[in-house]
Amino acid sequence: MIDAKDVTISDSEWEVMRAIWTLNKVTSRQLIDTMNQARGWSDSTTKTLLHRLIKKHAVTQHGDQRPYEYQAAVGEQDSMAAAATDLFDHMCAMRAGSTIADVIQSRELSQDDIANLQKILAEKAKTAPKTVQCNCLPAGMGADCNC
Amino acid sequence: MIDAKDVTISDSEWEVMRAIWTLNKVTSRQLIDTMNQARGWSDSTTKTLLHRLIKKHAVTQHGDQRPYEYQAAVGEQDSMAAAATDLFDHMCAMRAGSTIADVIQSRELSQDDIANLQKILAEKAKTAPKTVQCNCLPAGMGADCNC
DNA sequence: TTTATTAGTTTACAGTTGTAGTCAGTCAAA
DNA sequence: TTTGACTGACTACAACTGTAAACTAATAAA
């Protein structure tokens, strides 16, 4: 299993990955038909994306003869965490909290999800600082942050 | 103020936006120097990015004579929310909760942030469903989701 | 075994991004 | 008024993306 942090998946590729993760093990035909129905893509488009994913080591090819099977080489949860972390990493640290709030408000979450988040937050509250500093510019520059 | 949802900001452009948001109102010279110190970019790189941001309507140019001033035309919090929402929009809905958990765990949050999130979650719990369905493939396809 | 079909590989091509050089217009100094 | 410095505009160029056609190799049907 390749580390999700070492793989950059583009938007379209991401759609292919979702299908692969969901179907778990696919032939190209299955995947092509799936993407055709799900997104209206031509055969070629799916083929290209699949090959790019293989080249990026996000997907592996299995089998010794022709209708090969394809499988994800990176985990879905890991990839999601990597993508999300990466996004937050280049946004203002001071506003991460409110942004997470925005995300939570825009998502559907299950009772279990909520309970889990509450537990994590309760734990985090024990050592949380009073405030978080803006990290948009290196220390010293931009004296008074307007963030 | 332009709607953040209508503007797509690339990674490098994002760095420039952060500087502009923080400094609030800048001349190109200020911005160029800032990016040079903060990221080691050449003058040209910052200039190009600034112009692309103007073309995208993420930044506006002010003043009638030469050292113009530049200012963000999209809000920082709005842009962050738009970027984050956009990311979650193309990831499996079923795993959004765990991904948010991953993000929370990787961030530094203030006491206030945490309290706010707790309030939102408590509210959300009132109407939260028992489970959230995977939405990786259109209904009907991929019968048994492995997500 | 020849042919048709399918699966896999290469090539294509315009738009975006990261990164930066060069040219031109304008204000300030001489 | 000419010149220099600086700001802003335009050009450059390779890598990556989204989208797909064309070609080739392998298998299944005739």
Automatic annotation (TrEMBL), chains A, B:
Q: Which GO terms describe its molecular function?
A: DNA binding
**Keyword terms, alphabetized:** DNA-binding, Transcription, Transcription regulation
Which Pfam families does this entry report, sorted A to Z? Answer: Penicillinase_R
Q: Which InterPro entries match?
A: BlaI_family, Cu_transp_CopY/TcrY, WH-like_DNA-bd_sf, WH_DNA-bd_sf
Per the UniProt record, the source organism is: Lentilactobacillus parafarraginis DSM 18390 = JCM 14109
Q: Which domain of life is it from?
A: Bacteria
Q: Which GO terms describe its biological process?
A: negative regulation of DNA-templated transcription
UniProt keyword annotation of Transcription regulation present: yes
Q: Which family does it belong to?
A: Belongs to the BlaI transcriptional regulatory family.
Q: What is this protein called?
A: Copper transport repressor, CopY TcrY family
Q: Does the keyword DNA-binding apply?
A: yes
